[in-house]
Specification:
By secondary structure, the chain is mainly alpha-helical. The protein has one domain. It has 11 helices and no strands. α2 runs parallel beside α5, α5 runs antiparallel to α11 and α6 crosses α7.
């Protein structure tokens, strides 16, 4: 039993490393990082047009750039890398070996997370450099906001893996991006359903509220920019919520992937 577990862990590790190497070779990622840095630089231009809001604009634009382009990277990488294996039929010899489909998916997911870590570190480096040039110091509040951005991107990557386990890249991208957008509006949807006066709409919006991720839990940009107090308990709860949602989504992804026919 221990030998089988070790083999599974080794397979996941090998797939994760190969996934990371494949993602790093993707030129699209570097283009996205370039545009993210460019967006941060735009904040310097806006700074000239806004009096007294210099630091806030730089921080707001920087965090928004890391978040937005991180989401694009999570969706693009999460969908394309699984689909390429299926399209090029390189998945057949891989699954012919003693490698479980669950190990394949988890390996892909960990490889995507590793890619996101590197991308966020690169973007954060330029971001903190801009902040340091204008403030002359380091703002720890920004680290907390970036940590929660990573948790959010981890959830989005899991959702992308889930949809790519049974759907086409185009549909998977549309579904995942829709989850991202609606995930930031779940509280609004719940309130809208409660005030609609329709039992059907109320039940449907409540269903969306509990099924889709509440991504606003991870949004601490305003807290970071304006140095608003952050409750440690709420922060830990949000992280645990993200981890639990990832586990559930990955479980469904494995179930769908196990049923998929690659012939």
């Amino acid at each position: 039993m221990m030998r089988g577990m070790n083999a599974g862990v080794s397979a996941i590790k090998a797939i994760a490393i190969n996934t990371f190497k494949e993602a790093v070779r993707n030129k699209i990622l570097y283009n996205l990082i370039f545009f993210a840095v460019l967006m941060m630089a735009v904040s310097l231009v806006l700074d000239q047009a806004t009096i007294g809001q210099r630091n806030k604009i730089i921080k707001d634009f920087g965090l928004a750039s890391i978040n937005l382009f991180g989401v694009i990277i999570a969706i693009v990488v999460g969908i394309s890398l699984v689909y390429k294996e299926i399209e090029k039929r390189t998945i057949h010899p891989l699954l012919a070996k003693p490698v479980r489909r669950s190990s394949f998916l988890f390996g892909k997911y960990l490889g995507i997370l590793l890619t996101l870590v590197i991308e966020i570190l690169l973007m954060s480096f330029f971001f903190f450099l801009l902040v340091w040039l204008y403030e002359g110091g380091f703002d720890s509040y920004l680290l907390i906001a970036i940590l929660m951005i990573f948790v959010e991107l981890s959830v989005i990557a899991a959702v992308a893996i889930f949809f790519s386990s049974f759907s086409t890249p185009v549909l998977s991208g549309m579904f995942t991006f829709s989850v991202y957008v609606i995930g930031h509006l779940t509280s609004f949807l719940k309130d809208f359903g409660a005030s609609s006066g329709s039992a059907i709409i109320k039940q449907f919006t409540h269903f969306l509220y509990y099924v889709l991720p509440n991504l606003e839990r991870f949004n601490l940009k305003t807290h970071a920019v304006y140095h608003l107090p952050i409750e440690i308990g709420q922060l830990l709860f949000s992280i645990l919520y993200g981890l639990l949602y990832i586990m559930i989504v990955m479980l469904f992804a494995v179930l769908c992937f196990e049923r998929r026919d690659f012939k």
